[in-house]
Amino acid sequence: MAQSRRARAHRVQVLKNWLDQRIDLAGMRQFVEHKVVPVHRHTVWYYFGGMTLFLFIVQVLTGILLLLYYQPSAEQAFESVQFIMTQVEFGWLIRSIHGWSANLLIATMMIHLFSVYFTRAYRKPRELTWISGVLLLGIMLLFGFSGYLLPWNELSYFATKVGTDLVAQLPVIGPTVGRILRGGDEVTGATLSRFYGIHVALLPLLTTGILGVHVFLVQKQGMSAPLDIERGGRPVRTMPFFPNFLLRDLVGWLSALAVLAALAAYSPWDLGSKADPFAAAPAGIQPEWYFVFMFQTLKYIPAKIVWIDGEILGVVVFSLVGLWLWLVPFLDHKAARGEDSPLFFWIGVSALAYILIFSILGYVAPGGK
Amino acid sequence: MENVENSRRGVTLFLLWSGFGALVVSVLYPIVRYLVPPKIGGPTISSVPIPWKPAEIKANSGRLFKFGSRPGLLIKTPAGELRAFGATCTHLNCTVQYREEKQDIWCACHNGIYDLNGKNISGPPPRPLEAYKVNVRGEQMIVSKGV
User: Fold this and answer.
1) Which end of chain A is more exposed for a tag (fewer CB within 10 A), N or C?
2) How far apart are CA B113 and CA B96, in angstroms?
């Protein structure tokens, strides 16, 4: 017994040595052993980045599974999803998890974004982490938008009409980009093919690269401690990354999985009815919840402001806000110097309030549905 | 005392690993079941109308038609007799064709040859083609299973 254990230990050691001579395992082990995570009253927010990563992994796995049966054509798409939901064993579960996980992912990502924003974790030296993070946010929204169309049902069909039309409203480049997105002047099977390619090939490729950079930077630089704690004078309390933080992170992953499983099982994702290009848009048409605040804003903008079309103005303003968000680390000079930046705090609070209020209005305001 | 500690640790580890094992199984089981494609239910088709008139088909020729989700082969022998078969080769499921010059049914994939009764006479096919019944009612032809 003891002998066989010794023999096994020896074999493991031989394998370790073999790897060590090729990829410097010792260096990695040292890095992991010395890596620490700050402990303070905001530590809990650190877990949302990991949860977002976990949900993204769930998306990749369930997405690959859905690809086995999904058929990307206007004639077949709806039927193939219906087939997955009704004929394939656990097909309803796989699709529901994909749909719910997508939504939870956006939610955890927004929490992650705002927590990083309010703790000024974007300040020097983590500008690049923020830049790559905001890019990932944009990619995830595109994932949501393109994936929404793929079941080719009534709601997604009209949501895509509206969404691509908004893009086409943009000055100068709009009409061309709209045509490229739709593969023509209308939302047709050609649009479906394009969105499918974007959803399963282009965006995953971009994500792999940018997510790689993002996670590498987080590992390389470690977690940022909030400004006030860093300036507190006392050394910041820490816990080892391995295993203390990693195990806590796993609890976050498991909680996300539990919420996901419960939602998918008790509230399976709907399919609706098949898109019909010759039918009127159904009542209550609305984009996914994370687009609702923008959708609602557009409803309140007058048709003409001076000589500019209201919708164009709305789209341009939202684009500029996105650009501003992307460049925040370079605009917030005070945080870069390690000083308070109350202006940015209040901008964040207003943005959060705006998103909340307009999202709620989208669901409760008369004519909002 | 150490023994108590050890058995506590044992129980805890057992619970931890069996919980983890249950999680792995509950994730993997649906995935494995999902990977297995369902048998296409749908109505099993036992007969189909042929989209051509009997007179349209020349003697010594053959045409493929849709028999449900699979291809069928309708031939008119040089003697003028109409016959129908499943067009799926019994070797590796390629679709067979009628060869006018050799007056046989041929699978191009691996050179399998059937005679005009659908019997495998040369090459790798292990069994005859599935034979169908052709009923002619005036201008209309109906092909059905079960000869």
Assistant:
1) N
2) 9
